[in-house]
Amino acid sequence: VADARAEAARAYELDRAHVFHSWSAQAKLTPMTITASSGSYVWDGDGNRLLDFSSQLVNTNIGHQHPKVVAAIADQAAKLCTVAPQHANAARSEAARLIASHTPGELNRIFFTNGGADANEHAVRMARLHTGKYKVLSRYRSYHGGTETAINLTGDPRRWPNDHGNAGIVHFFGPFLYRSQFHAETQEQECERALEHLEQTIAFEGPSTIAAILLETIPGTAGIMVPPPGYLEGVRALCDKYGIMLIADEVMAGFGRAGTWFAIDPSGVVPDLLTFAKGVNSGYVPLGGVAIAPHVAASFDDVAYPGGLTYSGHPLATAAAVATIRAMEDEGIVENAERVGREILGPGLHELAGKHDVIGEVRGTGVFWAVELVTDRVTKEPLAPYGGTSEAKGRFVAESKKLGLLSFVNYNRTHVVPPCTVSDDEAREGLAILDEALSRI
Ligand code: PLP
């Protein structure tokens, strides 16, 4: 134990001396050291066990240290650690086949990337080349990644310092009844008006200039707004009407998170391109990609696709994806996510909303839930401002952690996003901690 503590203390010291962290003011950081993980739990540098209701960055869908995935990575490492992208390789081929077997429609060609941002970069590039048009519409209240095009597609404050008048990306509002942009009172009105707004945006931007509409099927970091029935179908219809590609960003919502293989599945909508990362192999080795419909892929049958990367379809990452997808199939992991959401997390969170005035709304599906924290239920004043934090929100995070819960928080929301493998008891344990932490604020 003493050795483990010393190692953790050294890791922290070196981190502060040498590691430059994402999205952070470096001098203000006090990162938590994580020394070990298993299933739904992680251990911090002081040896405390925490229930991981964040799945890290909402990526460990299969839980931590799944033995089949760990073994597959070790086996692949012993056999063949790396191979250039121009060669064929068993791990990559089988991962592509397995992914294609779960994507909607005929999206059966897979271009592998290192993560979600570059998947979106490539999907946009493919749509622009396929259509010969340039502009892309994406939503406010969205996150699409940290690289140049992806951060400009993003509809949250992280775009602002990176936005130098990026040509060719226009934002629009999606449906979000709780904070309706459209003065709607029902989901039906919200859906209808959000689609009218999108069609107006297309009309005023000029359909002949728009290559693609790119959207998170269920916006994740922005607040888990499950689309009202008919919205995705309506977006698909507008794309068809105006000759626009539909790109579904399933980086966070895909691979079981929403209680289905892909969040788009219940709508029956087939996008032209679908991007994925995170849950495809739970982030055990970095991997992302684009699933491509045959008509888009055909644009690059005789003309070279102008894009690529050294690690496209890296054997360790794709071997991890093969083992992850097989384990998800064999162990009913997507079904577990759906059931735990329906039987435990959904009812449990609604019960908490009945008890705590600080909860303005609870929404979600599967193991993908957002709890909207407000100072006033009538005005819906957020507990922390858009793009910011507050003392009360900080206290909530600290209390949760003291009680043994690692949560994913964004502005005034806490997200309940445990692994898809979470057990009933673990889900109940997390709800009980949330209950106590909310009582303390
Ligand atoms: N798209 C969505 C919906 C995401 O949630 C994220 C990451 O959180 C990304 C894209 C970017 O993925 P990555 O961080 O792997 O580049």
Automatic annotation (TrEMBL):
Entry superkingdom: Bacteria
GO cellular component: cytosol
One Gene Ontology MF term: transaminase activity
Listed transmembrane segments: none
Presence of the UniProt keyword Methyltransferase in the record: no
Keywords on record: Pyridoxal phosphate
PANTHER family linked: AMINOTRANSFERASE (PTHR43094), AMINOTRANSFERASE CLASS-III (PTHR43094:SF1)
Family listed: Belongs to the class-III pyridoxal-phosphate-dependent aminotransferase family.
Protein name: Aspartate aminotransferase family protein
Biological source species: Rhodococcus rhodnii LMG 5362
Lineage: Bacteria, Bacillati, Actinomycetota, Actinomycetes, Mycobacteriales
